[in-house]
Structure formats: structure tokens, C-alpha cells
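Entry 14. Structure prediction run on the chain below.
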Amino acid sequence: MSMASRMTIPEVEAHLWESANILRGRMDASDFKSFIFPLLFFKRISDVYDEEFDEALAESDGDLTFAEFAENHRFQIPKGSHWEDIRKLTTNVGAGLQRAMRNIESNNPAHLLGIFGDAQWTNKERLPDTLLRDLIDHYSGTKLGLSAIPQDEFGVAYEYLIRKFADDSGHTAAEFYTNRTVVTLMTRLMNPQERESIYDPTCGSGGLLLNAALAVKASGLEHRTLKIYGQELNLLTSAIARMNLFLHGIEDFKIERDDTLANPLFLDNDKLAQFDVVLANPPYSVKRWSRSSWSNDRFGRNFLGVPPQGCADYAFLQHIIKSLKPGSGRSAVLLPHGVLFRKNEVEFRRKMIEMDLVEAVIGLGANLFYNSPMESCIVVFRPKRDRHRQGKVIFINAVEQIRHERGSSYLLSEHIDRILNAYQTNQDVENFSVVTPIQEILDNDANLSINLYIQAKSQRNVPVEGETFDARFNEWTTNAKALEQLRMSIQESLLDWEGKMQDGS
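Output returned:
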């Protein structure tokens, strides 16, 4: 392949994935991302810098000083810290890499500080010089500048690598990857507009934020007017989010790293900042969190109560609701079904429903949570909405709107369109959606289980004439789901008991 040749997306994807194969046998697959992502970003910005340098050189008839001016470059690469400088090293390659990355970060503090993470590049047992040189030689064989791979295409390939690492690392994938088709559905439900602020309190690799920006761009609106904010606990994952946004050509954003429940970093005059749109896929049932300070939370995020130590789901939900702007604020949150019916959280749901905060509950099919068979749901919060939607919740049973293929599950465009249409029209559709007054929900002990209000055909326990086999199969399916819900309920009770034991309560 020519150094200057334009690469197709499949070629880029194959090239990136081969770098992971070089590391196989040296470390667990879950650790690949700690080294591959920073190295990839380092090569990308070095190649982009070179292109900008050449363009400035041509414009100035060969003026080297002009070509180095900061105004001609998106990022500054100090002397001795370019990719080609590291490529020349034969010994202590890891130390050289680490030094170059830190120099680039310190010379671009507004955008790149901490972006390369905290990988141990100097650990020669894990990363001997020969292995690092193999990785560097692999990337050196291809130009990764904008002329070879435009921003949009590179972003697609980068997301491919995120998904591949998710497949390779098993359960740890949920930390930084949300099913992309579900992300698309959540974004379309929220319909972000120009100049709006978008926030994700547990942003992972930034997929929800990125998709929102790209949706605005695809609709022909000016996505660069968006204000994008995210917070993420994990240092590497927050760095991946920033790389992800940069590599998609999005530069006006702010990603902070810390525990959102213990230390929310987006504030406005010492109060919790509020946003037009909140998109979130919070970590499920976090056992250890800052519960001890929640009863006296200085941001007022305990308006529904103090969740049990062994399950922080309603702490995240209260933070999200409190982060919504009073007028335009709306949120779509991906959650496990347990939050809809768990008995130890009934008072949270009761207050939430009485306050008319919930606009929609959308049940999705199984396996859409990464590497988990459980069914998920999207809960839409919109405290201020049109009069005809006030005092009501629309339930949408979309468990059958799903495609299972080769061990993975995803939503097709027609599935997304049908769910979106039901949500927007806000009308009853047989076996699919029902608009329910909040008093009916309160009469059901504030239970938000979708099957209490609507059941799809395959979930009914009533035989249909001429469908004897189907009826028996559906009965088995329904019983299996009921058993799984019982298992989850028992598990949640045990988690609650464990949390109380830890609290000494």
C-alpha cells in the first residue's frame, strides 16, 4: 500500500485490529485498549500535524518558521515528541513514548491534558523494546492523516475498534460501550437541536454524546453550536471518550474525570449545572458508592430519598433529573428492568410518579445490554411537557422489535422508527403501546412493569385458535420471563440486605 494512498474503512479497521494481534500473548485482551488507543491517537495527531505543516509550507513558499506557527496547527507537538522521533528509538522505547505523550499533553493543556491515560509504558516485562518497535513499525507503514482517512471515516473505524475490544474483553466492555442501535434510538427520542447543551453523567467512551452531535449534523443543522459535557470515573475510559470526539471532528466539548455521585464537576454558581438533554447508561446496581453523604447532599439530589448501599440506580436517576433545565430539560436513560418494579424502591417510584416526571417507559428486547442476556428499558424523563401529555405515562412494549444474529442483538431502522412513532404520536396501539394515567400507576403500587399495562402477543398466556404450538411455546416463554424476574427480584433483595449490613443499619 502506498504511503499516500486513500484507505477504505474496511482497510483502516483491519489495520487497526492487527495492532491488537501484535499484543496477544503479552497481556489480557481487556488491557489492549490501555496501549492501543493512546498509540493510535499519537500517530493520528502526528500525521495531521505533518499535513498542516506541508500546507503552511506551500502557502509560504517554503518558510519553515511560518509552517511551525501555532496558528497553523490544531495541536502543538514540541521538538523531540513527534511520532518520527519515537520511531528512531531502539532502546527504552517505552520511556520515550511516555515522555513524548506527556510533552504533547502539557503543550496542549486546554484540550489534551491527560488524554493519553496512565498506561505503564516503561514496564519492560510487559512491553519489551522489541514489542513496542513492532507496534510502532506497524503504524508507521500507513499514513493516518486527514488526506488518507477523513474525520468521519476515521471515527467509524475507531468505533469499530471499541466494539472489537468489547467483544474481546467480555464483561468489562460495558464500562465503555453501549449498543450503538440503542444509542441511535435514545438520541432520536431526545431530538437534540442546535445550540442545546447535552450531558452524560457516566459517559464511558462518549458514544451517546457523539451520536447526539452526529444526529444534529446529519439533519443538516449546525452541530458545532452544541455544548457537550460528560463525566466518567475511569481515567482511561474518559481519555477514550475525548479521543473519540476529537477523531470525529468534534472539538467543542468538555469531558471530566471523577465520581459523578461523590463529586459532580459540572456546576453553575456552586449549584448543579442543568442541561437541555441528558443521555445516560449508568452502571447497573453499583454496590459501593457515596451513600453516607447522600442524605445531606448539598446539591439536593436526594429529593426522592436515599437509595440502599447495594444499589445506586436511583442515586443516578435523581442526579439526572436534578440536572435537567426547568423548561427544555429532557432525558433518556438506559436501565435494567429491575428499576421498574423492585419492592425496596417503591417509594422512589411513587414520589417520581406523583411529581409527574416520567414521560415514557420503553421495554427493549434481551441482549442489548453488552454481554448480558437481561432485557433493558429506556425511561424518558420530561418534567415540563405539553398539556395533553401531562399526568400520563406512555408504555411501549418493544421486546419483539429486535434482531438476533450471530450471538448479538440490535435494532433495525424499522424497529427504531416504530418505537419513535409510538412515542411521538402518544397513542394506544394494540399489543404495543398504551397511554396510562399516573393515578392508575399509583393504584398499582407505583409499579412501572410494562406487562402490567400492556402485553405483546408472544407474552400472552391465552391460547389462540389455530396456534396450539405457538400458544404452548409462548406460555413457556412467559413463564421463563416470570422466573427470571423473580430471580432478579431475589437478587436485588440480597443486594439490599448486603448494603444494609455494610451500613450497619
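The longest helix spans residues 468-503.
Filed with the rest of this week's runs.
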